[in-house]
Design brief:
This protein has 53 residues and is low in regular secondary structure. Helices cover 0% and strands 0% of the residues.
Length: 53
């Protein structure tokens, strides 16, 4: 995601896809397009799908 308002999704595959998760980490791998604070990543909406354990 490189521009404001973009969205993306990623599947979780393999044996770990069947395991319950308690914590999630979002890793910023490069600066954003914000000129005042390029290493600030704002998340305004987050959806997680899966099974509730």
């Amino acid at each position: 995601m490189c521009k404001p308002g973009q969205f993306a999704s990623w599947p979780v595959t393999g044996p770990n896809a069947l395991l319950p998760f308690r914590f999630f980490r979002v890793l910023l791998t490069g600066p954003t397009t914000d000129s005042s604070n390029p290493w600030n990543f704002c998340i305004c909406f987050l959806e997680l799908y899966g099974y509730f354990h």
